[in-house]
Amino acid sequence: TSLNTEKIIYEESTLGSTFLKLIDTLNEAELDEPISYKIKWCGEVFCDSLEFTAKTLPFRYMTLIPGSEQFSLGPEYGNNNDGKQAVVKVDSFYAGIYEVRKAMYESAGSELFILDRDLPVSNISWNEAVEYCNKHTEEHEHFGAEFRAYGSQKEVNLQAVGFRLPTEIEWEYMASYGEDVNMKREFPWGNNISGHYANYYGSGDQYEPGPTPVGYYDGLVNTLRDGESFFGLQDLAGNVMEWCHDWYSDSAYENHDYTTNPEGPSNRQARVVRGGGWQSDAIECNNRMRKEFLPTVSHETIGFRTVITAEPFLKMWRSQ
């Protein structure tokens, strides 16, 4: 059994199905390096211990989003002919805890006219976001020939190893998942919204009107962690809206019952944007809100975050 946290993966442990969550102290650890751990626990009669090696991930600030065999699509996607919500399978993937910020964007060789390096990137078209994903992928050449840029205007290879934009279903899943797959949330953190949770029009934060720095609602800057999703992701609602990979269609997911990793139509005019932004009203930050923009369009309230499909990445990484 593998045990997962936001920063590291524990392989071949003997703890069975126990889920271990360490204090988040590994952000500054060396990437792709083994770290030895010894865990000790005590019961009423005796104590025991376990030693194992944890290997840090080769990328920072991403967390594993465990997949689901049955995830119900919201009514905003359209229903099956029988009037029931479609149920789909979502495979596991890694997702950026934060939206891509200026410092990360420029480290991949792209320039951006934003002064604060901690602000999320904005005024980025869908095409430019995909270009960043490919450049960021190419930075990891030491992983071997499989780890290369991919993606096109029409489709995404979910079995390739590299950074990409989330599909709309992946975005919906990581934003609305609650305590279990049947308890979808109205907002990433719960069912109500206020300025404690997100940056939206009238939220009252000190940066209004405008975006807040990445991490403002994660307890590092704003002292609260109210705005994180069930999986620990920040700013899925508010701050900047986020590009998804899919083409936009009002009926994109009709007749997709029990499909694995469904995507939108093969071709349309506009791409999907989700999540609401700092110019959005509070209600527009809910997990059901969908918008469409041409892939060539950039806007001051649109940014993005990246994801990596888990299974092909782990297969490649463990073989190194």
From TrEMBL:
SUPFAM superfamilies: C-type lectin-like. GO terms for molecular function: formylglycine-generating oxidase activity. Signal peptide: none annotated. Gene3D superfamilies: paralog of FGE (formylglycine-generating enzyme) (3.90.1580.10). Residues 117-307 form the Sulfatase-modifying factor enzyme-like domain. It holds the Pfam family FGE-sulfatase. This is Sulfatase-modifying factor enzyme-like domain-containing protein. It comes from marine metagenome.
